[in-house]
Specification:
heterodimer; A: Thrombin, subunit H; 3 domains; six-stranded antiparallel beta barrel; 28% strand; B: 175 residues; 6 helices; globular
Chain lengths: 308, 175
């Protein structure tokens, strides 16, 4: 109520003629903080501190959802632009691309058959040895809306959220391996924390060696490929700089399935305690220019029952 | 009506600037470069608008950006408020029409904002040389871009407001 006349008077100055000094001095007496921005700042900070966490949380979600359609619209516009740029390609180019795809499809068809045979073998062995079955996933492909990669955090915003059943903590991958995991899920969008982010940490293993190690992201320098680190590597593990070894995911972390590429490692050194080894993991450069990712959503018992 | 139109125009132009900065960072992310151009959102409200309407725009923009970043909600609101109040406090000592003054304010406010975020995020990296090297590189590049574009952006925003028919002769007269 006190501020209402101030709003009117101060804003009114834009369209009025000469400034009424008498009126201004009266106003200054009424509101002593005019011309003292620091006092107003302290007052604003105090007010913000008083706001309950529930209200802040509600405000955050509201502002997030409020801008989500704008990012989605920009993403659709970019896709539309790509579509028209592709339309300008010649038919010969398209025929060649079609032939390449047909070859790839044939190769994948064969691999699919092998995969099905292996799946059957696994389930037979599980029954025979009475082992718990491996976790199953469904895949959700999502477009990247925006990339936010700086020294403080590395995250991307994707175009799918609760509307596609995405859940927090779900694994996110692409053709080159691990992208990261879902950090926040909103109605139509989700935030993915990248594997290169300084706060990212998962269980990993060397390809062909099932002893677990810890992978964690790090601060990335500009104009370099993204990287992370591994620690808790057993002393007997060795790496040849000329033949980089692949670091893969392990299902021990309960986020990723086994065998997805995280990155490659060229050398190992002793850790500060001297008990284990540590090393720098080179991640794929494509991690910085992702346009599409796949989310692994674990299939729970309820999902299976629903499908049946 | 006049001031409402001004608030809306400044708010939407600032929003467009924010979207352009995000799209620019999308492209630059391929080279692991990130530009923080936060002071661009504070300059026009701080230099050309009345206190409260300007602060309203700054607060909404801050909360909009805040919602998407992994800092505690309200951090940017506080940082932008500080930046805005710094501009207002020294408003009379700067000449808005002087390009070098605008560049100086933009650079100082931006560096101040980046430094606070860097200190907040440095919890586990305070003694990490890479962290501060990357921070200094980002600070330098962002400052460079800001110095080049800040006067131009300010001019464009002013032009938009003038084109809308709002008189700009008595801006921030009460502060």
């Amino acid at each position: 109520m006190v501020l209402a006349p101030f709003f009117r008077t101060s804003a009114g100055c834009l369209k009025t003629g000469p400034v009424n000094l008498k009126q201004t001095s009266l106003l200054a007496k009424k509101l002593p903080f005019i011309g003292k921005p620091l006092i107003v700042l302290l007052f604003a900070l105090f007010l913000w501190w008083l706001v309950p966490t529930v209200v802040k949380s509600f405000l955050r979600i509201s502002f997030f959802e409020f801008q989500a359609p704008a990012w989605t619209a920009i993403s659709y516009l970019t896709s539309f632009q790509d579509f028209w740029s592709l339309r300008s390609r010649s038919k010969i180019e398209l025929i060649k691309a079609g032939q390449d795809l047909a070859r790839l499809n044939a190769a994948y068809e064969l691999r699919n058959q092998q995969y099905e045979a292996l799946e059957t073998e696994i389930s037979r062995l599980e029954k025979l040895l009475q082992l718990p079955s491996l976790p199953e996933y469904r895949f959700e492909v999502a477009r990247v809306l925006r990339r936010d990669l700086n020294s403080w955090w590395q995250q991307i915003l994707i175009r799918k959220g609760k509307n596609y059943g995405l859940i927090e903590g779900a694994a996110v991958v692409y053709s080159g391996g691990v992208v990261g995991r879902i950090k926040e899920v909103r109605q139509f969008t989700s935030v993915v924390e990248l594997a290169s982010s300084p706060t990212f940490r998962i269980a990993a293993q060397f390809d062909g060696d099932n002893r677990p190690v810890t992978y964690y992201g790090s601060v990335n320098r500009i104009l370099t490929i993204p990287h992370g680190y591994i620690k808790d590597v057993q002393p007997d593990v060795s790496v040849d700089a000329s033949i980089p070894r692949r670091i893969v995911t392990t299902r021990l972390g309960r986020i990723f399935p086994d065998g997805l590429t995280i990155g490659h490692i060229r050398n190992l050194g002793p850790s500060s305690d001297g008990l284990f080894q540590v090393g720098q993991v080179e991640l794929n450069k494509e991690l910085l220019s992702l346009n599409e990712v796949t989310v692994f959503i674990p299939i729970t018992g309820e999902d299976v029952l629903d499908n049946e | 009506m006049n001031e409402k139109r001004q608030i809306l125009i400044v708010f939407f132009t600032t929003l467009v600037i924010y979207i352009i900065v995000v799209l620019l960072n999308n492209i630059l992310s391929i080279y692991s470069i990130h530009l923080s151009l936060d002071s661009l959102y504070l300059l026009f409200p701080g230099l050309y608008m009345l206190f409260w309407p300007g602060y309203l725009i700054v607060a909404i923009i801050a909360l909009t950006i805040d919602a998407l970043i992994p800092l505690p909600f309200g951090t940017l609101f506080i940082i932008y408020s500080l930046g805005y109040f710094l501009i207002r406090q020294f408003n009379t000592r700067f000449r808005k029409e002087n390009k070098s003054h605008v560049m100086f304010i933009a650079f100082i406010i931006n560096s101040f904002s980046m430094l606070i975020i860097a200190l907040i995020m440095s919890r586990s990296f305070f003694s990490n040389g890479n962290y501060w090297l990357r921070f200094l590189t980002d600070l330098f590049l962002s400052g460079l871009v800001l110095i080049l574009i800040a006067p131009l952006i300010l001019k464009l925003q002013r032009l938009f407001v003038l084109l809308s028919g709002v008189k700009m002769t008595r801006e921030a007269i009460n502060d």
